[in-house]
Task: structure prediction
Amino acid sequence: MSKALPYQDIQTIYFAIAAVVLPFAAFVINFLFLGKSKLSGWVSTLAILVSSVLAAIIFTRVWNVQQIHVKQIWFRIGDSYLYTGILLNNLSVLMLGLVSVIALPVHIYSTAYMKDDAGYSRYFQYLSFFCFSMLALVVMDNLILLYAFWELVGFSSYLLIGFWFDRANAVQANKKAFIINRIGDIGLLTAIIILFNQYQTFDIERLFKEGGLIASSTIKNGLWISADIQTPVIWQYIACIGIFLGVAAKSAQFPLHTWLPDAMEGPTSVSALIHAATMVAAGVFLLGRVYPLFNPAELTTLAVIGCFTAFMAATIALTQNDLKRILAYSTISQLGYMVMAMGIGAYATSLFHLVTHAFFKCLLFLSAGIVIHQIKHIKEDNNLDIDPQDIANMGGLRKKLPLTFIATLIGGLALIGLPLTSGYLSKEGILITTYEWAQGKGDMMLLVPLFAFFTSCLTAFYVARMLLKVFFGDLNLQFLNPEIKIHIGDGGWRYKAPLVFLALCSLFPFFSFNPFLHEETWLLYGFSAYNSKSVFDIMHIAIPVLVNGASLLIIYYAYMIYMKRSTIVLPQSGLLYRLSFNEWYIDRFYNRVVVKFVLVLSDMAFWFDRKVIDGFVNLLEKIGVFTAGIASWFDRYIVDGILHLSAVIVQAIGGFARRFQNGKVQYYLFSMLLAVIVVFILKILIWN
Amino acid sequence: MNILTLLIFTPVLFGLIILLLPSSIRASFKYIALLATLLQLGFSIWMYLNFKTGAAYAGINHEEQFQFVQKLPWISLDLGGAGKMQIEYFVGIDGISVTLLVMTSLVLVIAAIASWEITSNLKGFFALFLLLDMAVVGVFCALDFFLFYTFYELMLLPLYFLIGMWGGARREYAAIKFFLYTLFGSVFMLLVMVGLYLSVKDPVTGNHTFNMVQMMNPKNYIDGSVFSILSHQTILGMPARTVGFVVLFIAFAIKVPVVPLHTWLPDAHVEAPTPVSIILAGILLKIGGYGIIRICSGIFPDVAYSGAYWLGLLGVISILYGAFNALAQRDLKRMIAYSSVSHMGFVLLGIASQTAEGISGAVLQMVSHGFLSTMLFFLVGVIYNRVHDRDIYNFRGLGTLMPKYTVYVMVAFFASLGLPGFSAFVAEAFSLAGAFKSHNVNGLLPYWMAVCGSVGILLSAAYFLWTLQRMFFGTVSLKGGDIWKIALTDINWRETLALLPLALIALVLGVMPSLVLGKINDSVLALVQFTQTVFHR
Amino acid sequence: MITLADFMIVSAVLFCTGMFIIVSKKNSIQILIGVELMLNAAILNLVAFGKYDRINNSGQMFALFAIVLAAATTAVALAIILNVYKQYKTIDPDKIKQLKD
Amino acid sequence: MSIVQVLFYFMGLITLASALTVAISKNLVRSIFMFFITLFALAVLYVLALADFVAVTQIVIYVGGILVLILFAFMLSGKEALAAAQLQSNRFISLSNLPALLLALLFLVVMINVIFKADVSNLQWIKEANGVKNVIGSNESMINNIGINLMTRYLLPFEAISVLLMVALVGAAHLSRREGTRI
Result:
């Protein structure tokens, strides 16, 4: 420990360490010793239970009280030291508490939900590992470790999405999730490297605290000036873009959102914990951590992208038939709200929405899990060939699954943002702040609150559609297959307790005793330093009234459509419908253009490698062989040839001479005479 | 007895024993080889533990700071008027060598374990294996250029035969390609070596010397000699020192390998038997990186400084190009071979940055890649041994058939793609950080290089995950049908014995990089200090 | 007046005829005849020049010697031919190729 | 043109014609007889060259000795020789004879050339001989002179030749004796 701390703080730190490490210990125990045992679920649950208790204690000790930061040297590289440490401030303890508190019911739920699965222990290994990474992520005090756990969170998400690794879709989805997350990771890594280069430290506190290194650096004349380093300002933008990529990948913001709907291939309990409540919130958490880095223009961009994501995801959710996909898009949409809130400066409101959303979305997913589970039961009991997640098959489950219905209803209403729910508090806060923010920015920026309102209305519609299709009316399955037997119910306490707990947390009293005014939420006081102070005016009443009124109207409209089938329905073949149903063709675009492009590029690279580089090498080789051939030819025919030629000449002369030695006396005579005559002739011709 | 000498020559001793033993007990050869490598590992671990750190033991260009030094006259010829020819048996290590030595010894143990699969001509195989063992260890220890070169060349011969005799279908092509490539590099290296020899005088004895440490001191260069910095000699119109650097760099770049000199690697890997692949990827490539650090930037720091941009560029190209190529492969071994190209690109990028972070990252990456590529090739060997096929498309759903194997594959893959917690992450992150920082520190590399380099991390995720998804996940479906299904048994204790230490080391190095960085820091700092000051006017 | 040149031309033609016979004929006896023709050509020359040595008669004297010697050689040659014929059953010199290497 | 000259040319023509017939003739017997004619014609030519003694010797030794010897040899050599002789190419100008013919013609050309170039009639010693009248007259006999010279001036060669002749005769006798196993 670098500095002397009071005993209680040291204890807090140990608590924090224990809270983080316990799930890891559970993971190790499960991995090493409890390979097949059902005990593993309870080990993990126990670990997370203790973690959440510790987190609660830490929360009470740190929240709005103090900030604790301890660090220790991890290793030295060159001249710079890397530290490992724990930073407990309002943000991290909030997240610490949130993650462990959400994880606990999910664990309990999972022990029941996964009980028949062959990979039960493996599931809890992964889950514990995820909890460890996520908890560590929120308490780490430096960017490198933050990044490390950031990626480990992605990795555990990868493992969990591909939990049923023999399903082709699941492994496609987890690959996609990891790679898209990798894009974000690279952005984040680049940003971290840029910051390291600029400030020579990874320490979050030193960088981002009030009056810290970030705050004291300036941008002037196209240069980004910190204490002793000047960098072109473009690198500040790139750092922000990098962080945004990280956020977009983790929190499923446009354009990197496409992995999240596919990630629903994992077990539903996983979707509830990771892809609704915690991991996807890590992006927003990261934004919260590095908030001071962004300048107003960048924040505006952030707001616009968040708003766009919210709107886009909501439109897609309108037409999806897969229960989990609807929820996934609604998650994207709500995350868009959070990012937008960060962008407009509603730091605290954004985090508030994060928290409320975590609860009600987790609740929704767990309920959906029960619904799907039960439909699957029906499917298995009756050997039907249906998709258990398709809401077209459902209906009327209200009576069969009363608790689930109530839980879903509470979650749904919170998602819409109707009063008395926690969602109302946080969402209205965002909408109001958006409106206030846009007021001073010109007409274009008014589009942001406008779209935010519109998205809210859309939310009301798709939530209503989902609720109506699942719980109201009659069970479509029965309608289609009248003879099926149905034995379903809410399930045991391990299903019910988490639902009840989360449903309670999704109601207003948990956050504020005033069900209508979000300003009175205790959570907001924790971040007063960042949150833009807003004056209380008429809009604070007008906007909620307006939005809720519109929502109610929409719900009524949906009710008319789906229950009474009396109202005009938008055509299901129009451009808008197809756009929505096909998820704006973004995935298809990625597959057809980006992935193809990369694959083509890699094929080209390989072609280049084989044909050009290897071709060149082989050409050299051929030239070599050819030269060698020439050399050997030369050797054989020229060098040896000369030798052979002289031999041949000698031989020829010999042979020629030999022919005179044919034993014929006359021939000898003839030759002799010939020689004589030649001498004579020469004598006459030449020497005369 | 000097521990380094012991370390270098232990394997040869065992190799001789194997040669002398009758072939009738050939089954015991692998145990003898394993014993030799284990003994070597013991020595290197002892050295690692006794290795002193601190600025006073930095090494690099201070002969007295090297540790475990042994210096004996080896070839000493009186050439009359031309002075004395002075070649020494001079071995010693500093921070950069020590970690690589430990890595090498461990990889050799694994390679020895992997040699269980060899069934033909065991005597020849293990004798060559141990000869190779000696040569690679010798390269990391040698401080005399002539000795270095001797070991360097000595590696080629056993490798050529190991690939050419125990390899796959196209082994002869691969062996020849490998041999020619590396020979091409080293022949020119010989010329530069001689040039350096003629340029450098030992200040004590006044003779020409092959001592590499002496070569790093500009004062030892004879005025007007070819490589003297002051004389500005030229070769073919280019500055002589640049030519010398480039030639040496090419020699080592072939080993690393740097695009476009890499094409021997996939062929050699694909055709080589598993233990040779392991040695190739685990150790040989590191010799390239080590050579660039110790010799290229040690003896020609001025050129390394001025040419850093191009080095970095080659590094980035290697990263991206190797990654793209890996993405296009369908042969598992070839894919891993290309991924090696990509990962070694980080080494080059780190070295080019000439920052402490970059070079430390590069060395760490070499160590990490040594373990990980060993693991990867061992894993490929496992599956190849069972069904004699490596085509990614021919497998599906191995995760169900071979769960333990899949766990190791996942560990190896995720460690390779730079998952935090494994060694490659720290190495790659700091290589990139160093490359990025370099612009501010010494202005060598532009910012974008680091950014482009990081894209390589993304691509490595793409090809590893694609392979995982294609081969290991999904429902079981094999090209060879039920025969394969029976053949594909999960890993046995021997394979576990090889894989588990590697996986643990990758993990431990990821969590505690100080195990490596602690030893190399002083040397790296000294090197950075040295390259930036010594040869600059 | 018969000039020396006339004799010599006759002798030359005779000589050449003899030579032709020697070289071309496939019969040892004919070859012997050729030899005799050539000798005679020589003798003719000797005789013709012998006209200009009245005192010593060297030309005629050597002509006589030559004739006598020719007789002797012919005798020996014929003996050889006969022996060869006994040995080889032929007198074609082409068939007798023991000298060939 | 005197009668002597005509005779010379006539005899020369006979000599040459018969010699050529010897050369051309494929019939061995015929060629031997043609040779006989040649020798006679040559004897006449010797007479014309004022060497009557030589001419006589020629006839005696050649015609009487050598020719008979040859005929005997021919007869002794049996049928095969005869047949072989018959087998010879009967054409004078044939490919196998061509080299020989060419050679002979070349020699002829060269010799005639030499003869004309040498201008034998005007040789130094002939002129001198003419000067001191050391020329045999057409009406004097040289037999006396030859006999004296043979026993005085050319005694040594005469004796040497006699020895030689004896050796030759011994050799001929040795060769032709009937033993056959030797060689």
Remarks:
- Chain D has eight helices and no strands.
- Helices of chain D lie at 3-24, 28-48, 52-76, 78-87, 98-118, 124-131, 143-151, 155-176.
- Chain D has a mean pLDDT of 80.
- The first helix of chain D runs from residue 3 to 24.
